[in-house]
Structure formats: structure tokens, C-alpha cells
Design brief:
Layout (H helix, E strand, L loop, with lengths): L7 E5 L3 H15 L6 E6 L41 H8 L4 H7 L3 H6 L7 H15 L2 E4 L4 E4 L4 E4 L4 E4 L1 E4 L16 E2 L1 H8 L6 E8 L3 H10 L3 E9 L11 H8 L9 H11 L6 H8 L4 E5 L1 E8 L2 E10 L2 E9 L1 E4 L14 H11 L5 H7 L12 E3 L5 H4 L9 H9 L19 E2 L2
Parallel strand pairs: 1-2, 1-7, 2-3, 7-16, 8-15, 9-10, 9-15, 10-11
Antiparallel strand pairs: 3-17, 4-5, 5-6, 12-13, 13-14
Helix pairs in contact: 1-5, 1-14, 6-7
Length: about 425
Amino acid sequence: MTTRPTPTLAVVGAGPKAIAVAAKAAELRGMGVDVPDVVAIERSVVGANWQAVGGWTDGQHRLGTSPEKDVGFPYRSSLVPRRNAELDERMMRHSWQSYLVASAQFADWVDRGRPAPTHLGWSRYLRWVADNIGMSVITGEVQRISTDGRRWELVTPRQIVHADGVMITGPGQAQRSILPNDPRVLSIAQFWERAARPDLIVAERVAVIGGGETAASMLNELFRHRVSTITVISPQVTLFTRGESFFENTLFSDPTDWASLTMAERRDALGRTDRGVFSARVQDALLADDRIRHLRGRVAHAVARDERIRLTLSSNRGGEALETVHGFDLVIDGSGADSMWFEPLFSQDARDLIELALRAPLSGDALQESIGHDLSVAALTPKLFLPGLSGLTQGPGFPNLSCLGLLSDRVLGARYPDVAPHPSTRRTDEHQPVR
């Protein structure tokens, strides 16, 4: 008998999703279960987007999700019949509580009332898990993704990685902004770099574009600076609070009934619980500061004029399209993640193959509606896993941190077509465990 080659799953980004999948794969392998080889390709460091180096935070603000929703949560594995309890027990070795015990922080954390860790503290936990499993990480930025119709080819500055499946994670680049060459308009990364300086930000009128948690963290930081008014610009009619009751949280942890909802009901649920909403903790801080204002609309145009940044906002009032212009001394573009940030990476042959599977031009809407149970684009070979776009079809917890254990089940439970023998693309220095 010939041994069937082991598939390779390449993950773009070494964040929580990559670590969750790699950790479960390691434990399954320890149980004697065949799983893909998981390798992450990371342009910076493990957990970079939770540290200042990633540009999305200064690392000092609090995690919006409970840390108990760690890489194994909700600990209801379904991959190994009659052995799933064993798998969950093994995954508990990588839990948030296990990390605190191992680092002598558990009693202190409990005595303080189980506070949310800082983003930097969360990144230390992720690094700890990656270290424990000897996670394979290639340091380098993916520059292009192409395909021969059977496997993916991921090009980095130093090497080419071949894979039978690709999972794309992360929010993209934190450097983009509506006016990238004007010092009075800051991207997310530029804002955190500026906020880290010893001198405070001084401005009369500040605008923050965005109504999600990225914008919320920046608002929390702005409170300590010398600014007179802070205007939050978002498409919503007001600044909504994320639903955090048992019923809303269950949607994230257990999407069993998600498929029974209509598309309209799903979109409504996503809008109420996840997209463009602030956590209750952040809303409490906003209520205590009378400098905060809200403007409804989308930024249609930005221009520097008369020593100010003029933003043209478009909105719909009573079925009528309206445009208004507002001037600010400082604008912070915190509109958040771009769910399609990876699209320019695809070569033309990859785009053609994806569009053939979609039976439609490549777009965010088409991809969202195509995501199947294993979080990959249906009918596409080789496998392309897009958990960041899976909320609409599979449940709101998969794009974020709310059910990483269930996410890893879905991805590792994917069926690959027969993997033909192929020359290994690995070198001795190619996949180095995290040190």
C-alpha cells in the first residue's frame, strides 16, 4: 500500500485563528489522527495585530471579548467520534486559565474579578500557545497567490510555499487612510504611533471615522488628549451598543440554528451584535465624556481646504440622498478592517478559478454567500478558507474570537480531494517553530 500524502494547509497570518487551528491539529496528531500540516506565513510576529508592531493597537487597551473564549472555546469538539471528550481535554492544556496557571497569574486574575486582559496580554497568551505546540511559522509577507488548479502557490520574498489549502486571516493593513499624504489625516497605525509620543495630541475638532471596536479603542485613547470635540462618523443612525446578553452570546458560541434563519434575519442579527457596534464597556466610557458627538453618514470625499480637512458625508434620509460637508482639524480614519484586503494578492489564474467556482465576478458579496460548512469557498479546488467572510452563511462567531475551537473543527474537518504525490517544497530552514 502507498501512503497518501499529507495535505498542507497554509495560513496567511499568525493570529488567533491560525494558532487555534495549529493547536487542534497538534493535539489530533498526538491522538494518532491524520490532519493536514499547518504552517502560518506571518510578515511580522505571532499575534502582531494585538501588539503595537501590528499598527491596530498600542497594546494597552482591553480585549473586547472574554479571554475564556480562547483557542479551544467552546470545547465541544466533533471531529473524532467517541474521542471528542479526550480532544477537548487535550485542548484545555492551551486554555486561557492554563496559561495563567503556567505563568503564575491565575490567583491574581481571579482576585481582581477576572478582568479583560490588555491586547498585549492577549498576544502573550497566543505566543505561549504557539510555543507549546511548536507552531510552524514562515516569516515573510505573502506577495502573490497563484494556482495550477490543484495546489496553491504562495510567493514570499524569500521562498515559495505550495499548499493544498489556504486560510486567509487578519484585517489587512492598518496604514490605509482617506488622505494618505496629509499629516492631519491619520490612519489607524499612524494614530497609535502618534498617541505613543510623550506629547499629547492637541486639536479643536477631531473626527473619528468608524463605529466598530477599532474606532472605540481610539476614542478611549483620545479621552486623555487635549481635544475639544470628538465627532464619530458612522453610517448607523446612532452609536449602537453590542448585545452582550446570554441570547446574543449564544449566537456566537453555538450557531446550530443559524442556517434556519432567512438571509434578512441573519443580516439583521449581524448588524445588531457585531458589525459597527461598541461594547457595553466602551459605551459607558463614552457616556461619561461630554466631548463626544455622532454624525450619521459615509465619507464620500475628503479634501484639505482652508486649513481644515473637509469631509463630504453622504446619507439617505427618507429615501432621499443627502450630502453634507463638515470641517475638522484632525481626522482619524478608523473605519476598520477591509474584509477583502487579500483580493489584490490573487494572480489572474487564481481569480479565474475562484470566479469559475462562484459563477460570478470576484466580490465580497459573492464570496460571503459561497462559504460552506468548512468555512471554505464552495465548489473551489484547491481549498480556500475565508473565516472572515463566513459570518453570513455560518454564524457571527467565526469572523472574530468568539468560537475559535469550533472554527478549528470546521477547517480541520474539511475534505481534500486526493492529494497527488508532489515534491516537497520545504527546506531545513523553511518551517521554524516559534522560539
